[in-house]
Structure formats: C-alpha cells, structure tokens
Amino acid sequence: LGQEAGKRRTIARLIRLLDKAGCRVLVFDMAFPGTSTPDEDLELIQAAKACNRLYLPVIVRPKTDPDDPIASGLAGMENQDLVIVPAVSDWGRIVSSAGLIRNLEGLDAVSAGVGHITCVPNRDGVYRHYNLIIRSGEGFIPSLALRVACDLLQVRAELIEVHAGHYLLLPDARFPGGNPADLRVPLGIDGSIPVNYVGAWARSFPHYSLHRLLAAESQPRAWEALRGELRDSIAIVADVSTRAQDFGASPLEQIYPNSGIHANVLNAFMTRSVLRQAGTTAQWILAGAMFLAIL
Known about the structure:
Shape: globular
Order of helices and strands: HEHEHEEEEEEHEEEEHHEEEHH
Radius of gyration: 20 Å
Distance between the termini: 47 Å
C-alpha cells in the first residue's frame, strides 16, 4: 500500500473497489487502532459494513510469565466477542493472551470476523511456526487465517475441538466440490503449526500495488481485466512498504513480508496442505543425518 496506507479514506475506497471487483473475502493484515478524523473513521466503518465480508486483525500480547493471572480470567471476559469456546479442550501449554489492541470502536462490530496476527519467530529470528490459537480464559482467540478458513469451510466454531500436542479438529469442513468431512490440523503443544511456505515472496502469490488498483477504476479495459483476475479470490491487504517495517526472515528468504505468513497458512487450510510437526525422535534422526552430512 505504501504511503497511502495510513489514510483511512483511501482504505475505504480500496475496500469498495475490491468489493466491486468480486473478491470472495477481504482479509486485512492491518490494524486500525485509535481514531483519525471523524469523517475518515466513519467512511472506513461504512465501507467495511457495506462489504460484509471483510476480516480484521487484532494484536495480541502473548503471556510470557506462566504465573501471570491476567491471561486466565480477565483477558477472556474483556474480549468475549473474540473468544471461541471449543466443544472439547485439552489446553496443554498453549500460549495465553496477556492483553491485546483492538481496532477503532465500531469497526470490529461491522466486520465479518476478527482474528489475531501475532507471530513469534524462532530463537534464530526465522518465522517457522504460526500461533494458530492463543488461549483467553476458557476459550481461544483464533488467528486471522483460522478465522477466515472456518468461515470459508463453513465450520461451526462452537464444535471445534482443541487437543494440544495432537490436533485441532474442524468438524464437517466443506471444501468446494466435496462432501463435509472432519479436518484434523496437527497442533503443537503450544498451539502452533509449522508454516508451509509455498515459495519465495515474489514467486508465491499474485501481488497488486495500491496505485495499480486505484488507477484501474478509471480505465475500462484495465478494470475489466482486473475484475477477471480478482473475481472470487481471497484478497489479503497489507502494507509491505519499508515504511511499515513488517518484515522478518523465512526459511526461504532473509527479508520476507510477515503478511505472507498469513497467506501461506490460509492457503494450507484451503488446499489441505498443513504440515505435521516432526516428533522428537524424527528431529533427532534429522539432526543426526545433517551432522553426518557435514562430516
């Protein structure tokens, strides 16, 4: 999005454009905390409401102290509209919420859904895993990718099962052209899953600049071509300019936009390609093989 990313009137215009282009859903990897001008805030809320298939993020602060009581009761009560209480829960050592940042008042309420965008890199700074769920009270806050996937697959949130260290069950998931079937997503003891990167940033998913999208509105041929490309697509909107500084390292690239992590996880859900985490034995075997290879 670049320099225009902070202008809520421009964001509202973009929402209307992507809605008119026929995108299946709009997924924002951009939070809108606090207020701007009353007119711009109202225009943003109205555009989100008119779209009715726009998903928004919240920023969750993970709990780092196991004895911190804030993560158990208060966090869940204050943000009950975000929390999913599963049918079955075995929490294991799933990361808990110690507080979060919400969007502009009134914006979350008109969205199609809200999920967290908190990602924590491994110790070496590489983003290999994704916090699929973060515990809050007796339920969990879903990641943005999980929130969108549940709706696209028509999964009833109250029937989800959490089995930390084993799997997350999405019952009766409805994939296009298939019969409803349970989807078991391998789940780490901390509530994370490995990120299945489909490739380097430039070669993975189609990218569109804000300038190109807005310019196409006034060019009939360009607009028709754009509509053909975007129709029924999952559009992820993010600021990947250097101004945003929302970058990290992936296993494939030293500098990788973090918004791509959500895109890869959502793609893994929709293509049934979520990776299974290697067990301890497998990790030791792999480590031994790498050691022998080095020798």
